[in-house]
Amino acid sequence: SSSFPVVIGTPSPPSMASAHLHNPAKRDMHYGTPLNTAQYLLDLHDTGAVFNFCGSLLFQLSLTAKLREHLVQVVQNQTAQPVLYDSSMDRLAKIPGYVKTADADNVCIFHGREVRQVPSAVGGQGCVLQLCLANGSDPEGWTKQELGDYNGWAHDSRRPWRKGEQLEREGFSSFKSKFGNTAYTLHHRFYLHLDRRNQVWLSAEDGCEGEPVQ
Hints:
By secondary structure, the chain is of the alpha+beta class. The protein is built from six helices and nine strands. The protein has helices at about 25-30, 35-45, 65-75, 145-150, 165-170, 175-180; strands at about 50-55, 55-65, 85, 110-115, 125-130, 160-165, 185-195, 200-205, 210-214. Strands 1-2-5-4-7-8-9 form a seven-stranded mixed β-barrel. Strand 7 and strand 8 form a beta hairpin. The radius of gyration is 16 Å and the shape is globular. About 35% of the residues are buried.
């Protein structure tokens, strides 16, 4: 069972939200090179960090309890860190071994969702970017139906958005209690890459991406 209950919109005290989360030079001093990516993602989540997507939309990063547990184990056991690709791989389709599929491995590629109309989301725009554990027993992971209809390389208008009622029927039983009754969502595969400024970007397969902001 998880010992890391997480409530959207209630991050750790602001004193913990330091420059090392969004300033590349301070990030590398704090997390090392190569980057301790798992610890970095944990700290972004634990402080309620916000990513600026598409230049204007502020999304709070939220890890599911199961993915958080997994990343804690990665740090403690020094197993395979989440890959941080270089700036030449600015689209998921450019990474080695890319295939149009629903697969994720929690190392190179993650399962996740953009969630809209979340009243308590940090950033004030009602947006949460949730990353979940793939290939595991994550009660908040992708449902069988999400795996089946995933086409994240297509334009949003041709993709299956879901409301809370549908996701709860499919098996994500706590969706409305976690994100609110009005929330709706679109599932994506995500990966991490650097840009030419050495900033980290969290990018969806369709090319929409965000960087951490203060």
